[in-house]
Design brief:
437 residues; Growth Hormone, Chain: A; 2 domains; globular
């Protein structure tokens, strides 16, 4: 931990004190720069596919192509993240993604749409290594008591810069009538992020990096990560609760637009208003969580957040007009930052450094599988029982996830794990709280 981070650990935490940590500023700055570029490119790709093909299926295929790498390579990426220099993985990943994004410039006809899918798949594969590296590296840069605030800042700024990136892409494409500048700017944001991350001063705590990775070692380490993820009550509770939630919310995400357009006859021009309502709710909630982070326990936030989010999601089934939808979406969005930030904080604190990559990969793999299964069943369920009933079921799964979290976390005082030997022991001993107090 850097000297500045150590001084923060010994004083009363404030948001300003967190931002004085140089390494956090660098990793956060790199994130918001690349988030801005990413959001520009994603919207530009959807606009490009629509212009060239007019096919909704083609646009849906892009979303699937970007998600599949996490299922295919998530566990393997976790092994490498736990063995190699995480900062170096992030720098190389940014450079590769910045180079790959330039491949989108080649797409100028329907016959070349396959390039979008190929480059998107490759980018998604590289991102599979980047994301767990960033999550695993952060606890080594800042005090544990600031993790909840840091994760909330990350989530909130991501929302803000996604909105800004989408707006910038729409203006750029609308005015210039071309997509190349968007892709070139995205490449520049990746290279900028790589430069910022490369300046981070981080401890080298990956002790197995020198040993040769054989197939047998790979399998053993994959199994170890899975065993620890499901063998500890706190980790298992986190994975089970979020997986249950995504088993319902995946279908809700697919059917949100059909609910508003087909059921409520909402004009397309108002779809942006509902998206703005969700973003506003998440930003306000994120600001509140950051300012009060030392007073919250991540385990309690997870359970309350899931139950509240599920309840308001189910309430969407009763909406009668656009204003009902916007109001309910705003209220449900208030519970999203507590869920995402607190679950990430739990996995960072409750898992020793040498296992963070694999446990995070396990969480992503389980939740992504649940989400894809739910998305795949969305159309069938809507035809059989109706869209509104799917929202009730989807919200019910989220509430069930919250109840599961409440049960699994009951009586638990999170312990800051320092070795893989300790993590399978019951996490109910008297120990440091999630905020390190």
């Amino acid at each position: 931990m850097t000297e500045t981070a150590a001084s923060v650990a010994n004083e009363k935490f404030t948001l300003r004190s967190l931002l004085t940590i140089r390494s956090f500023r660098l990793i956060w700055s790199g994130q918001i720069v690349s988030d801005f570029g990413d959001s520009m490119t994603r919207l530009a790709l959807l606009l490009l596919i629509n212009e060239l093909t007019g096919s909704i299926t083609a646009m849906a295929t892009l979303a699937i192509v970007l998600m599949v790498p996490r299922l295919l390579f998530g566990f393997v990426a976790g092994v490498y993240v736990d063995r190699l220099d995480r900062k170096r993985i992030m720098v190389i990943s940014d450079i590769l993604r910045g180079s790959l994004v330039l491949g989108f410039i080649l797409v100028d006809s329907p016959q070349k749409i396959w390039i979008i899918y190929l480059v998107g798949f490759l980018q998604g594969s590289v991102a599979t290594f980047f994301e767990p590296s960033r999550t695993a590296l952060l606890p080594e840069l800042i005090p544990n008591k600031t993790l909840l605030a840091a994760n909330t800042i990350t989530q909130t700024s991501q929302i803000i810069f996604y909105m800004l990136g989408n707006a910038a892409a729409g203006v750029a494409v609308g005015i210039l009538h071309t997509y190349e500048p968007v892709f070139m700017l995205n490449a520049l944001t990746f290279f900028t992020s790589a430069l910022l991350v490369s300046r981070i001063i981080s401890p080298d705590l990956n002790r197995s990096a020198g040993s040769r990775l054989t197939g047998r070692i790979m399998v053993n380490q994959l199994w170890e990560g899975l065993r620890i993820s499901l063998g500890n009550r706190v980790l298992a509770g986190t994975i089970v609760s979020i997986s249950l939630t995504m088993l319902g919310i995946g279908a809700v995400n697919v059917l949100m637009v059909p609910l508003m357009i087909n059921e409520l006859k909402m004009p397309e021009t108002l779809l942006g208003a509902s998206s703005f309502g969700q973003s506003a709710g998440m930003i306000l909630s994120g600001i509140f969580i950051v300012s009060m982070s030392t007073r919250f326990k991540a385990t309690r936030l997870t359970a309350i957040g899931l139950i509240g989010f599920g309840a308001f999601t189910a309430l969407l089934s009763t909406s009668q007009n656009v204003w009902h939808v916007i109001a309910i979406i705003f209220m449900s969005a208030l519970f999203l930052p507590p869920i995402t930030a607190s679950t990430q904080t739990i996995l960072q604190v409750a898992v020793p450094n040498e296992l963070r990559g694999r446990t995070n990969a396990a969480r992503l793999a389980f939740t992504m599988t649940a989400s894809l299964a739910s998305m795949g069943a969305a159309g069938l369920l809507a035809d059989r029982i109706g869209i509104r009933n799917v929202f009730i079921i989807g919200g019910g799964f989220a509430v069930l996830g919250g109840l599961a979290a409440s049960f699994m976390y009951r009586g638990v005082v999170l312990k800051i794990s320092d070795s893989s030997e300790n993590i399978l022991r019951p996490a109910v001993e008297s120990a440091s709280d999630i905020q390190g107090e």
